[in-house]
Amino acid sequence: MNRTTATLRVRWAGPAVLSVLIALAVTPRTAIAAAPPPPSPAAATATVATAKLCYAEAAAYIDAWAEYIEALQDYYNSLPGGTEQEIMDAARRLDEAASKVWDTGWKLILCLGQYIIF
Amino acid sequence: MKTLLLLATLTAVAACDRRTGPTESGARAVTGLVELRLGTFVQRYDLRVERTDDGFAPSLTPIGGSRPVGRAFLGGGLAFVRSDAGPDDPVVIATPQGTVTTRLTYRALGPWHVLDRAAISVAAPQLGAGPELTVAVLEPRLVR
Fold first, then answer.
1. C-alpha to C-alpha distance for B118 and A43, rounded to whole angstroms
2. Are residues A57 and A113 both part of a single domain?
3. What pLDDT shows up at residue B130?
4. B41 touches chain A (CB under 8 A)
5. pLDDT (tens digit, 9 = 90+) per residue, A2-22?
6. In the A/B pair of chains, how many CB contacts fall below 8 A?
7. DSSP secondary structure string, B16-82?
8. Do B130 and A65 touch (CB under 8 A)?
C-alpha cells in the first residue's frame, strides 16, 4: 500500500514540477516583471460608465445653473431702478433658481455616488 | 498538547486584538456642520453619521430656514464619511451645453475619512463664469 502511494507521488510530482519549470522557462521575463497592472474598476467606471450614465443629470444641472445665472443677472439689474415689487419678484425667481440648482446638484451627486462614492 | 494550547491562546488574543484594534478606535459616529453654498445662497445642516453594520448612515437636520433634504438623497448619494480616502480624480461630464466637473475631497478623521468639500462646477462658454455649488463638512468630530 505504501509502495503504491509512493509510486503515485513520484508519477504525479515529476510531470507537475517539470511543467512548472517549462512554463517558467517559456514565459518572457518582461511579461512577469513589467506586466501592467489591471485597470482599476473604480477608475474605469468613473471615466467611462459614470459619465455616460449621469449624462442626463449633468445636462439638467447645467440647465438649472444657466437659469440661475440668468435670474442672478435679472436680480442685479432690478436693484438700481426697480420698484420694490420688481426687486421682490426678481429675488423670488433667484431663490427658485437656486433651489433648482441645489436639487439637480444633489441628483447629480446621487447619480455619481452609485458608481464612485461607494 | 502544550503547543496546541499556546496556539489556541495566541489565536484568541489575536482575535480580541482585531476587535478592539486601532482601526475602529471605538468611534461610532461623526458629527459636524454641512454647508451648501451657491454664490450668496447658503443652507446649513447639522450632520450626524452613524456607523452601522452596512457602512455609514447619515442624517441632516436643517438649521434655521434651510430646506429639508430628502431621504433619497442621503440613502445612496453623497458619502459624508467613508473608510478610505476616496477617488482623487474629478468626474468630468461633457454635454452640448457645457462641461460639468464634480470634485470630492476627503480628510482623515480618526479611523475614517470625512468629506471636506464636494464641488460642482460648470464650464459653458456661452454662459460665462458662475459660482460653484459646494457641499462642505465643517468642524467634523468623532463620537466615541
1. 18
2. yes
3. 75
4. yes
5. 444 444 454 555 555 445 444
6. 103
7. HHHHTSTTTTT--EEEEEEEEEETTEEEEEEEEEEE-SSSEEEEEEEETTPPPPPHHHHHTT--SEE
8. yes
Residue B116, Ramachandran bin (φ over 0: left; ψ between -120 and 50: alpha; else beta)? alpha
Number of domains chain A is built from: 2
Host domain of residue A11:
1-36
- In this structure, are A15 and A64 located in the same domain? no
Give the CA dihedral B29, B31, B35, B36, nearest 10 degrees. Answer: 20
pLDDT at B137: 95
Tell me the chain B residues in contact with residue A59 when contact means C-beta distances shorter than 8 Å.
95-97
Q: Which of the residues in chain B have pLDDT under 50?
A: 10-24
d(CA A88, CA A78): 9
**Residue B75 lies inside a defined structural domain of this protein:** yes
Q: What is the ipTM of this complex?
A: 0.70
Q: For chain B, say whether A55 makes contact (Cβ under 8 Å).
A: yes
Q: Which of B46, B47, B116, B56 is nearest to B85 (CA)?
A: B116
Give whole-number Cα distances, B140 to B33, B51, B137, in Å. Answer: 7, 15, 7
Residue A39 per-residue DSSP state: P
Angle between helices A55-81 and A84-112 (to 10 degrees): 160
Do A3 and A45 share a domain, yes or no? no
